Amino acid sequence: MVRRFLFAILCLALVLGFAAPGSAARPRPCKPRPRCLPSPSPSPSPSPSPSTPAYHVATAGSDSNPGTIESPWATIQHALDVAVAGDTIIVHAGTYAPATFTQGSNHITLRADGLVTLVGNGLGDTDGEYTAGITANWVSDVVIEGFDIRDFDFGIAVNDSSGVTVTGNTLSGNDSSGVQVVRSSLVEVVLNRFLDPVPGSAVQDYGVNFYQSDHAKANNNYFSGSHNQALSFKRIDTDSEAIGNTFEGCLYVCIYVGQNDDDIYGDQTSVRITVENNRAKAFTDPATGVFYRCSQPQPRRG
Fold first, then answer.
1. Residue 129: predicted pLDDT
2. CA 109 – CA 87 distance, rounded (Å)
3. Contact yes or no for 256/231 (Cβ under 8 A)
4. 236 is a domain residue
5. CATH number, position 245
6. Count: domains in the chain
7. Backbone angles phi, psi at 127, to 5 degrees
8. Closest alpha carbon to 189 in 213, 153, 205
9. Are 226 and 249 in contact (CB under 8 A)?
10. Cα-only R_g, the chain
11. Is 300 among the domain residues?
12. Which of 57, 108, 259, 275 sits CB 3.0–4.6 Å from 268 for a disulfide?
């Protein structure tokens, strides 16, 4: 009986274990397990935006074609009729008929690639009708770039429009103006060439003529020859500028800021026109030996 009791005590001691007084068993520290954070799902790559459509015009094309570089259209006018906002029209080398932007056109670029020429009939307005190489009426944010336009009444005519840029063009022999801008805002005429090579007589009366327009820029252009008023802010132009232009010859005046304050139509003066860093000089054409005088500044009342 006593043996059984002692055996039971021994078993209980083995199960519970003995601890020395004052030395309690310490729990084993747990190793921290690395946390497996879920990998962030990759952000979806933005889809590339479709490239701006470019249509093509070439003399060997057809207006029934799709207007691609392989199958171009034949006329600038057809391209302008089809184009919508954001389109670019590339006109390849050759001679083309005049063209007019569709009324209400916006954000269209019309660009020449190579020597692209538009040639008028050279009659001026003697036939009773005014003509222009490229016309932009009631349009906004369009670009006209790189054309050679000659022998119209107006090389490029911009009327009742805003945000038009005319750049990199050559305009010569246009009876009234190389570029005429009427009742328009924010028009930029930059980096163009205006040539009037007939000595002693202005064929292209104005290189650039602004009329009742505001916030216009005529900057870094080249004028040569016998323009009566090479660069003119003719009537009621405001908040505009002529900066960095070069004039080699001008028959009457290189830069004109007008008009009279006692005109029959009322006060026609142009105001807040910035004119700076322009260069003007007489010029002898080395190819022909023709001398083009550069008139002296002439003060005018009003």
1. 72
2. 7
3. yes
4. yes
5. 2.160.20.10
6. 1
7. -90, 5
8. 213
9. yes
10. 39
11. no
12. 259
- Residue 155 included in any domain: yes
How far apart CA 241 and CA 257 sit, in angstroms, is 11
Angle at 91 between CA 90 and CA 94, to 5 degrees: 160
Q: pLDDT band for position 109 (50/70/90)?
A: very high
Range of the domain at 121: 115-292
Contact 162, 184 (CB under 8 A): yes
Give the model's pLDDT for residue 158.
Answer: 98
Whole-model pTM: value is 0.79
Q: Which residues contact 123 (CB under 8 A, 6 or more apart)?
A: 175
Report the C-alpha gap between 117 and 145 in whole angstroms.
12
Count helices and strands (H / E) in the chain. 2, 24
pLDDT over 90 (residue 185): yes
What per-residue confidence (pLDDT) applies to 203?
A: 83
d(CA 236, CA 251): 23
Q: CB under 8 Å to 229, separation ≥6 — which residues?
A: 205, 206, 207, 209, 250, 252, 253, 256
DSSP character at residue 59? T
